[in-house]
Amino acid sequence: MSGPYELHGPLPALDRPVLVVHFGGWIDASAAGAAAMSALAASCSTEPLATFDSDLFIDYRARRPLMELRDGVNTRLVWNDIELRHGTDPRGNAVLTLTGPEPDSQWKTFASAVTQLALQLGVYQMVSLGAYPFASPHTRASRMSCTSPSADLIANSPYEKSTLDVPAGMSAVLEHALTEAGVPSLGLWVQIPHYVSAMSYPAASVVLLRGLGEATGIDIPYHELEREALVQRQRIDQLVESNDEHGAMVRQLEALYDQAERQAVQQAADQARDELASGDLPTGDDLAAEFERFLRDQDE
Question: Which InterPro entries does the entry mention (predicted)?
Fold first, then answer.
């Protein structure tokens, strides 16, 4: 390769594609993000568009290629490549996926190359997917949190927001690079019950795909993941029921979860009341007058 990536052909003309990002090797409890990306790639029938230079971005001692031996014959080496692929969802929306191992080096160069490609392809939004372990029960819906350099985008997102200092991943670097280039970028993170974070948890992948749809309009079927989640729920229920200590832990987590939900509802109600009292929201009379004006305009 003469540059940071190699194209597999001319860049296609895409209509406002969404770029969905997930890197292996970074935080992804229960591999929920990877499972969501697999469902997305299968549903969108993605095809390779560009492959990034592994010699430039990958440490082979940390991510060695896989050697396939067949009766002693070294048939081939499978390299860990970072790929940009393109496809369409079932509704015809253009989708780009950026997947593979998280780069080991030259993050700024990588972010610049991705941003360049995104602008050439007309990307209008980027979303990254991930999952992290959290003290929550498997008997309740997994919550999502979000990240973005854009305060406006965060303010309009219905997901939880955190205040803390943590090590950043490549997806966070892309959030900044793309936002600075004018492409709104959002990180979606689903919470995984900490006691199941080492096993698959399809329910969280469903939550990520729903969140992706809410944020971008990308429509990815997740019926198979829902069926897998039902089976997994039954297995976990059986494990918990067979151990009194585990059952007590889950009941405690349920109480904490439900308390947090009640507090969130109360805070939303208080905020709405304050906005109404401050005059930020229209009154009933204002809405009635607006409706009357609308009817008059229709008659004219």
Answer: Proteasome_assmbl_chaperone_2, PSMG2_sf, Rv2714-like
Token pair listed for 164? 């803390």
Tens-digit pLDDT profile for residues 129-173? 999 999 999 999 999 999 999 999 999 999 999 999 999 999 999
Q: Measured between alpha carbons, how far is 145 from 189 in angstroms, rounded to an integer?
A: 5
Type of residue numbered 198: A
**Threshold 0.70, pTM exceeds:** yes
Q: CATH 3.40.50.300: does it fit domain 3-221?
A: no
Helix (H/G/I), strand (E/B), else coil: 124:
coil
Phi, psi of 106 (to 5 degrees): 50, 50
- Would you list the domain boundaries of the chain? 3-221, 244-295
CA neighbor of 79 nearest in space, from 98, 104, 53, 105:
53
- The CA distances from residue 169 to 10, 105, 147, 198, 221, in Å, are 30, 12, 12, 20, 28
Quick one: DSSP state of residue 140? S
Task: Report d(CA 171, CA 187) in Å as an integer.
Answer: 8
Mean pLDDT of residues grouped by 10 in the chain (300 residues)?
90 96 94 97 95 95 94 95 96 97 96 98 97 94 96 93 93 98 98 93 97 96 96 93 90 92 76 63 53 56
Tokens of 8: 């597999």
Q: Which two tokens stand for residue 141?
A: 């819906």
- The tokens describing 190, both together, are 């689903």
Query: Do 74 and 141 touch, CB atoms closer than 8 A?
Result: no
Q: Give the residue from 260, 134, 115, 285 showing the smallest Cα distance to 204.
A: 134
Phi/psi at 141 (nearest 5 deg)?
-65, 140
Cα–Cα dist 276/115, whole Å: 42
Residues 6+ apart with CB under 8 A from 54: 60, 79, 80, 81, 82
